[in-house]
Every structure is written in structure tokens, then in C-alpha cells.
Write a structure and sequence with these properties.
- Helix content is 30%, strand content 16%.
- With 237 residues, it is of the alpha/beta class.
- It has two domains: 1-68 and 143-237, 3-Layer(aba) Sandwich (Rossmann fold); 80-140.
Length: 237
Amino acid sequence: MDAVLRHLSLDLDRGEIVALVGASGAGKSLLAHAILGLLPPGAEVRGEVRFEDRVLGPDTLPRLRGRRIALLPQSVTHLDPLMPVGRQVALAARRAGARDPGAEGFRRFGLDPAVRRAHPHELSGGMARRVLALASLAGGPDLVVADEPTDHLDPDSAAVVLAALAGVARRGGAVLLVTHDLPAALPFANRVALMRGGRIEAVEPTAGFSGAGEGIASAYGRALWRALPQNGFGVDA
């Protein structure tokens, strides 16, 4: 059986955001879940994930997940449909030993504090996604793995979520930002990791992603950049 993720190495430093980009099916979300140990039963895993020089495994991950390491998942179905969202945020904070961000936390994400009393089905998709981001960050994690956190968000709401992730980096944490929206991520990311076919093809500085992409060393990276609508859907020969 062929490996889905293979020959893959990626590091994140404190104080930085690394954007993980690539075509659909490249393995980005699978990598995000593998870091957190959230793979389907029966998945065969070889290799190591290290956090502060400690190998993460069945004995260490449960103690860190949701506390020092947080997943911001792609789907809002991760919210409990039977519980008011304010309580869910408070529980996420308390689980990590942090204070409930309360009304001010909801305001930071552009949400009326009254939203705290609502259940997920009473919210729009964009509101639910911002609640999910607030819950994921409420515990003050040191590492955030954000899986398409701006998917289906309007530009203003996306900017709010990305600014919150940037806050994690500013206070000395690190963020792996899995995204298909490279232009939105560039103002916040320090580096861009390019993924294709289950591998990291290259890691590029964000400065190269401008103009016609002449500063991008990777041919795959240049092709992705030039294929964007704002770059004329260019196709490299």
C-alpha cells in the first residue's frame, strides 16, 4: 500500500506562522490531523512529530491536545449542537486552565455577546466558524494547527480570524495555517510550505509571492502563484 504522506519534514518556530498550501488532495488536512494524532483507526504511522523536543505519541498527545496544542478544524460540525456556544467556549478555556473570554472574546471576533446563548444551528456559517476559532484559541495554546480557518468567510471575517492567529504568534506561539486562500494568508505568514502528492515540495519566504513570482524558487510554487485569478490564471509551459 502506498503511503499517503511520505518523505515529509516541516518545522515551525516560535513566533511564526507557516502557511501550508497546495492543490486539493495534496494531503494538507491529513497532515494537520496527523500532527494532532487524529487519524482514523487502523492508520499506519511511521515517523515522528516533535513538540519542544518531545516526541508526541499516545502517552503525551492527550495531555497537550486542547491545551498547549490546539486544532482549529475546518468543519463547524465540531461544535456541540446541544450546547450553547458560549458554554462551549468557556469549557474549552477551562480545559486549558485559562479564563473564560466571555463577552469580550465574542466581541473580538465581531460577534454580539448575545450570541453566547445561541446553539450552533441558530448561527450563520460564518458566525459558527468564528465561534469555532474563538473556542480553539480560548485556552491560549502554544501551537495552533488551523485547517482552512477562513473557508466560506467574507473578507472582513477572514481578516478577524487571521488577526487572532497572528496574535498567537506575537505572544510567542506558532501557527500552521492550512489554506487554499494564499493571498489572504500572505500578509500574516512568515513562510509558505508548498505541498503536493503527500510531500512538502518546498518552503518559501512570503516575500517571493509578488508580481509574477520571480522570487519563488520552486517551479511548483510559481505555478500555483501564477494560476491565481488575480495573476491571470497563468499556466507555466
